[in-house]
Structures are given as C-alpha cells and as structure tokens.
Amino acid sequence: MSLYELVFSAVNSLINRALAGPGRSPYSLVLTDMPGFQNPARPATLQHLLMNYAAERLQAFFQQETFNKVLDLYEQEEIKMKYADLPASPKPVIDILDMYSQGRPSDAATETKGLYWILDEESMFPGATDITFLERVLMHHSDAGGRSFRLLHQSGPSKFVLSHCNHMIEVEYDCSGWLQQARDTAAARFAKTIVQESTRQPVIQLFQGKSATAITKGSPTPKSLADGTSTFMRQANSRKGHSLLSSNSIKPQNRCLNYKIQLDFVFDTLRRTNPHFIHCITPRTAHRQNETVMDIVHVRAQLRSTGILQSIRLYREGFPDCLSFADFRRQFEVLRITPFEGGDVDGGGDSVFDEREAVITILEDCELEESRYRTGISKVFFKPGVLADLQLEKEQKLNNFVIALQSLCRGALSRKRVDGLMMKHSAVSVIQRNALI
C-alpha cells in the first residue's frame, strides 16, 4: 500500500505540473467531484470514514456559500430578512474528526483532539490497541452534540456510531485494524528506498536526482498543518507547478491527516472561486438497487439532509439577485420616463445617496411593487425573476427606440429620394418645353 501511494502521488504530481503549463491565466475552471456519502450495510471502514469526512466538508462549504454569505450580505446592507429554517451545521461532526487542540503542555492529557489526531498518537504507543483508541475517542467526544442527541456513541467492543448528514443518518464504524494501518511499518519506512532500487528505469528516474527533489518540495510545516494549512496551500498553489501534499512532519502512511491536507488544499482553492453546486440524488438505497420504484422516503431524506429544500426556500423568500446602485442605474436608466438632469449615467459626481434616489426613481417609473425589491446601503436586491423581467422590458424599449430611429431614417431617405425625383421631373418638363419652342 505504501509503495502504491508513493508512486501514485508522484505520478499525480507530475500530471498536475504538466497541466499547469508555463504561464498563468486570470481565468480557470475547477471541477471537484467528491465520492459522496457512504453508508454500507455492514459496519463501515476507515476508507468510508474518509469519504464521509469529505462529504461533511463539502456540505459545510455549501452551507457557507448558500446560507451564511447570503444572510451576512443582507445584514451588511441592512435588509430586513428573517430566516430561521437553517440546516444544522456539520462543524461538530468535522471537529470530532479533525479538531487540533493547541492547549498548554500541562493539559496534553485532557485536551480535546479529533479522531485523526488521536489515531496518529495511539499508533505511536506499542501497547495501544483498537479498544484503547476507541476508549480515548469516546472520552473526548462522547458528550458531543449536547443533551438532546449524541453525535458519537459506542455500539460494540470495537464499533462506534457517528451521526452524519445534519444528524439525520447514523453510520456504524468498525475500527478494527485502524491502528495497524496507521502504524509505521517497514514497508512504509523504506518505500522510497525500494522504488529507487527498482529494476525499471522510469521508476528510478522518477525518484532520483532533481526529479525527486522537484516532486517532494514544498512540504508544510507543523504550524501550518495545525492552523488548517491554508497559508501553506496558498503558497504552494502560487508556485510554478504543483507539489505533493505529503509532508515530512507527517508520516507518509498516515492516511487520515494526509487526506485532511488534501481537502484543505481543495477547499482553499474553491473559496477563491465562484462556486456552483450540483447535487446527485439517488432514487433508491443500496439495498434496493434492483427495484424500479423510486423510494420517496429515501429521496426526501437526501433533500433534507443536504439542505437543498432550505436553500430553495431561502431563494424564494429572499432577494437573490442584486446590483450596485451605479451598475443598476447604468444598465436600466433607459427605463426612466424622463432622463435625469445632466444625463450623467456614470454617476461621476453623484453621492451614494443620489445614486440610491436615482435607483428608486427608476423603479417607481417601472411601477415595480415594493415587495419585489429592497434597497440596501450600496446595492438593490430583487426577488427571483424580477431582474430578468426588467432586462426584458429594457430590451423591448431599446427595440422600440431602434424601430423609431429606423422609421425616421427611412422617412428622411424616402423624402430625399422623392425630392430628387421631383427635381428630375421639373428638369424634364423644362427641357421638353424648351424643345417645343
């Protein structure tokens, strides 16, 4: 497994550096495909836990972009919007898995840490077992979630149940063999030496000399790992090419923490983009794949747990479309019945208050109901579809202007052509009269 991960990471790094190219572009498209939530019929494994952790991180990012940013913008612009139907935050579940405590050294025995960090520490103790690992995890997080429900509880000697999907689905995990996967084995320690002594020349060239240095450079420090590695990932992303996400400060065979670092890099990149989310809904559970009838209960549970219904409700009750006062006036001043004095559509000398009054005047001339829009401090917000209707009305008015201009031009050309014909007719009449004389 260690040899496979080492070679796979090296090949992945080379592919990324080849795709990066020599130059930089201000525009890019990032497509992120997550494995999805896993809830197998039998007790889940460590691999399932990593996949569900990625799903929880993606759900937290979705809620941040869909709910928190929108409501924060309403608050900043002083838009009165009361929306209490927010989905439960997945942060408590994420903290159970990857929380890093920076307490005092005297509190090292009692400080709260995530499951991944506890697994890393327990793998260093020769006498530790899967049972002691689970006991320590329960000691730190058995009371997570409050009095109304528990996010984590034990279900067997080496099994525990963790609540996922906004606490709506409980998944049972079996931690048997997890310490063995996290421990430092001989194959993991000498994996790089083994590949360097390979009989295949391409493998030798990949892990020797400058190639190996280029592949393994840019590792994060323990401090950057502790605070979420966002600083390191931003620096690594700005370098020419892409480096591996493994670190000398973390054992290469520690799948959990390395997986966390990779997700930190992915979401640090996504936070600097304009994200669009595509949710995949399965019609049936894994136990009923052979059936042809849709499982309504299963589909409804997915819609609720992912926050899709709440996001649709917020979209319908809120004001999702917005423009700054200057942009709105520049785009829709044509809808004004009478032009503003001075014709200053750019608002060069106008204050924010004047821009706001101009926007309100345009909206009043459009006879738009006040319930369909809100004016904030620097932006105007609209209900779904209102901005599209204004754009359609604007295009119709511009079309009328163009038609009127065409009519004037054609009329002027026609009159000019008639004047020319009249002049020719007069000239012919004069010539005929003179010829008769």
Question: What does this protein look like?
Answer:
There is one protein chain. The protein is mostly helical. The protein is 53% helix and 6% strand. The protein has 18 helices and six strands. The strands form two sheets. It has a three-stranded antiparallel beta sheet, covered by helices on one side. The chain has a three-stranded antiparallel beta sheet with strand order 4-6-5. Strand 2 and strand 3 form a beta hairpin. Helix 2 (46-76) packs across helix 3 (91-98), helix 12 (230-238) packs across helix 13 and helix 16 (325-332) crosses helix 17 (352-365). The longest helix has 51 residues, at 386-436.
Question: What descriptive keywords fit this protein?
Answer:
437 residues; three-stranded antiparallel sheet; 6% strand; mainly alpha; elongated
Break the fold down into its secondary structure elements and pairings:
Elements: H1 2-20, H2 46-76, H3 91-98, H4 115-122, H5 130-141, E1 152-156, E2 159-164, E3 169-174, H6 178-182, H7 186-189, H8 191-196, H9 201-206, H10 209-216, H11 222-226, H12 230-238, H13 255-270, H14 296-305, H15 308-317, E4 321-324, H16 325-332, H17 352-365, E5 373-375, E6 379-382, H18 386-436
Antiparallel strand pairs: 1-2, 2-3, 4-6, 5-6
Helix pairs in contact: 2-3, 2-13, 4-5, 12-13, 16-17
